[in-house]
């Protein structure tokens, strides 16, 4: 199957951090504005986040304790047709099914209303599938124990018509797509601020549950100076035919 084109678009500090105190620094403001404008310019139908990022500003916390399902649902994809009709999506990488949602759509300032799609594995409990259906949240089964990012992009394209998707963190999610050679473009808006924190997350991070992978090289496409001493760097993977 065809898959969605993927851009990884991130705002970073000078030392490659994608969260932390540098976001609140006044010198980051211009870079933050530019990041939002470029995000709109990419015109992606779906934005893909990891579970930690979803908890930080999209999901309604952790899912409650759920009673065992009397009639377990089959382990298969489920689509809310009303949500699909929105044409914009927030995709949550949530392998075991842990996140809570009060609605099947999300509205963020300056962005179109987006339907929530959960990307799950076979480990998600039947009662969690029922919980999502009750709230109208679509879900896709894309792996046995780990999310198969290639399969996810293929299903997003085939089922939801997503031709362009944005991967926007966290670092483990970004690396998961990168290790499957799925990042067609890397877009970094760099704020002129160093973070220095050992607790902050970097653009790419390999989780312990992922097997080792050699370093991935990129080729530079464009460098652009932005207002407020920020930079915009665009790359594609070095072995890509672009």
Beta-sheet strand percentage? 15-25%
Mean of residue pLDDT values: 94
- How many beta-strand elements? 10
Overall 3D geometry? globular
Q: What's the helix-strand series?
A: EHEHHEEEHEHEHEEE
Give the count of helical stretches.
6
Largest sheet: 10 strands, mixed
Uncertain regions spanning at least 5 consecutive residues = none
Brief summary:
The chain has helices at 29-42, 51-57, 81-84, 126-135, 149-160, 171-179, and strands spanning 5-12, 46-50, 89-93, 105-106, 114-120, 138-141, 164-167, 185-190, 218-225, 231-237. The chain is of the alpha/beta class and 242 residues long. Strands 1, 2, 3, 4, 5, 6, 7, 8, 9 and 10 form a ten-stranded mixed sheet that branches.
Report on the structure:
It is globular and about 60 Å long. By secondary structure, it is an alpha/beta fold. The protein has helices at 29-42, 51-57, 81-84, 126-135, 149-160, 171-179; strands spanning 5-12, 46-50, 89-93, 105-106, 114-120, 138-141, 164-167, 185-190, 218-225, 231-237. Strands 1, 2, 3, 4, 5, 6, 7, 8, 9 and 10 form a ten-stranded mixed beta sheet that branches. It has six helices and ten strands; from the N terminus they run E-H-E-H-H-E-E-E-H-E-H-E-H-E-E-E. Helix 4 (126-135) links the parallel strand 5 (114-120) and strand 6 (138-141). The chain is 23% helix and 23% strand. The model has no long low-confidence stretch (mean pLDDT 94).
């Amino acid at each position: 199957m065809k898959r969605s084109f993927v851009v990884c678009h991130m705002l970073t500090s000078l030392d490659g951090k994608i969260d932390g105190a540098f976001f609140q620094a006044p010198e980051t403001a211009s870079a933050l504005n530019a990041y939002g404008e470029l995000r709109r310019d990419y015109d992606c139908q779906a934005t893909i986040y990891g579970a930690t990022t979803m908890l930080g500003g999209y999901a309604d916390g952790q899912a409650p304790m759920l009673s065992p399902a009397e009639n377990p649902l089959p382990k298969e994809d489920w689509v809310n047709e009303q949500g699909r009709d929105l044409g914009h999506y927030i995709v949550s990488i949530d392998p075991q099914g842990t996140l809570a949602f009060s609605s099947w759509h999300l509205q963020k300032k300056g962005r179109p209303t987006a339907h929530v799609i959960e990307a799950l594995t076979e480990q998600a409990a039947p009662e969690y599938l029922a919980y999502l259906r009750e709230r109208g949240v679509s879900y896709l089964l894309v792996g046995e124990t780990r999310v198969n990012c290639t399969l996810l992009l293929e299903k997003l394209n085939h089922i939801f018509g997503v031709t362009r998707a944005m991967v926007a963190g966290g670092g483990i999610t970004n690396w998961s797509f990168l290790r499957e050679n799925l990042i067609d473009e890397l877009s970094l808006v760099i704020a002129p601020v160093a973070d220095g924190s050992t607790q902050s997350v970097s653009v790419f991070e390999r989780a312990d549950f992922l097997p080792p992978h050699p370093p991935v090289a990129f080729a530079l496409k464009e460098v652009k100076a932005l207002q407020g001493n920020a930079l915009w760097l665009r790359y594609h993977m070095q072995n890509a035919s672009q």
